[in-house]
Amino acid sequence: MSLPVLPGITAKTIATERITTRVLFAGPADGRPVLFLHGNLSSATWWEEVMLTLPAGFRGIAPDQRGFGQADPQQKIDATRGLGDWADDAAALLDQLNLAQAHVVGSSAGGSAVWQLMIDYPDRFLSATVVDPGSPYGFGGTRDVSGTPCYSDFAGSGGGLVNSRLVQRLAAGDRSVDTPFSPRMVMRSLLFKPPFIPEREDALLTAMLSMHLGEQDYPGDSAPSPNWPYVAPGRWGLANALSPKYAPNVAKLYTSQPKPNLLWIHGRDDLMVSNHAAADPATVGQAGLLPNWPGVELYPPQPMVDQTRTVLEKYAAAGGRYREVVIEDAGHMPYIEKPAQFNAVFHDHIETTSSPQGK
Fold first, then answer.
1. In three state form, how does the secondary structure of the chain look?
2. What range defines the domain where residue 121 resides?
3. Does 185 map to a domain?
4. Would 77 be classed as within a structural domain?
5. What is the mean pLDDT of residues 173-185?
């Protein structure tokens, strides 16, 4: 599938020690590097406008990540490593480009990859930015700000909870608006705050339809569980990699050195990552749409935003620095919905941060 790019964006096929993939570039070749990591249901295409509006002297770099876009389809995400594959791929790309450090930006699941990078490769950061990131404790099946699992097998997280009707529509290349489960309508209703429709909706949709599908890709595999909602995470693909079962040891964020200065931006009206996320099985069960929900005492909605804030407060207490910015009237993709507001804080962050704490 051909993925067109905007004027000013250059697409190259880059082979690293780990994966061959499409990488987008913008800005001067000798500019200060800014590495953009996309999230689920997307690709590097979703970062193009942000890359084109970087301040003078910065170079935007955005790969199609493993499992998405024009990344080598033979290279799968080993979910048992959490976001380790994405983190190692990012570091390998920097190596291939002869870049010791970069400003690293991650949206949604790309933000989850930033947590892993901060643990595994803290010295590769000039700064960190996370945009509506997944909780450091993963997605689904945890009950409190400490990330305590509702069940020991992490039931309610992973690929088994992905809506099969959306997967069928993705596989069919559906571009319609005739059902709430079409990729276009999922984009309009869950990724953006209605009634917002992006100017380049068709290009974003094409990128969305380029994601890799299957039991080792999206939605991935799953395992049966005796615990509600009777499905536990499998071993392959991004949805399983985001399970709290495979999340990193969050305490390592507090002990890693150096500590990147971090900007956390999130939309006030994000439905995908919130304290009552739309896809959280507890939220769905509480609404009566998933039978036999055991109730709030046994399986409450995951407090995703509160988890992130609590982790970052501990990160700051351990010597790091972070800033939280909430963008009003925006959903899960504030850099597309509210670019002026996003760029104002993002540009200030990368222009005023030259190295992590401890460098």
1. CCCCCCCCCEEEEEECCCCEEEEEEECCCCCEEEEEECCCCCCHHHHHHHHHCCCCCEEEEEECCCCCCCCCCCCCCEHHHCCHHHHHHHHHHHHHCCCCCEEEEEECHHHHHHHHHHHHCHHHEEEEEEECCCCCCCCCCECCCCCCECCCCCCCCCHHHCCHHHHHHHHCCCCCCCCCCCHHHHHHHHHCCCCCCCCCHHHHHHHHCCCCEECCCEECCEEECCCCCCEEECCECHHHHCCHHHCCCCHHHHHCCCECCEEEEEECCCCCCCCCCCCCHHHHHHCCCCCCCCCCCCCCCCCHHHHHHHHHHHHHHCCCCEEEEEECCCCCCHHHHCHHHHHHHHHHHHHHCCCCECC
2. 10-352
3. yes
4. yes
5. 97
User: What would the pLDDT profile of 49-74 be if each residue is shown by its tens digit?
Assistant: 999 999 999 999 999 999 999 999 99
Closest residue by Cα to residue 204 from 342, 44, 1, 11: 44
Encoded tokens for 355: 């190295």
Examine the pLDDT at 93 and tell me if it is beyond 70.
yes
Residue in the structure block whose two tokens are 């919130």: 274
Quick: pLDDT tens for 224-274.
999 999 999 999 999 999 999 999 999 999 999 999 999 999 999 999 999
Take residue 201 and report the two structure tokens written for it.
């909706």
> Is there a domain that residue 358 lies in?
no
Label each residue of 7-71 as H, E or C: CCCEEEEEECCCCEEEEEEECCCCCEEEEEECCCCCCHHHHHHHHHCCCCCEEEEEECCCCCCCC
Output the pLDDT for position 354: 64
**Global pTM value:** 0.97
Domain count, the chain: 1
CB of 133 closer than 8 Å to CB of 119? no
The tokens for 327 are 């963008």
Q: What CATH code is carried by the domain that includes residue 60?
A: 3.40.50.1820
- In a domain, residue 3? The reply is no
**68-77 per-position pLDDT tens digit:** 999 999 999 9
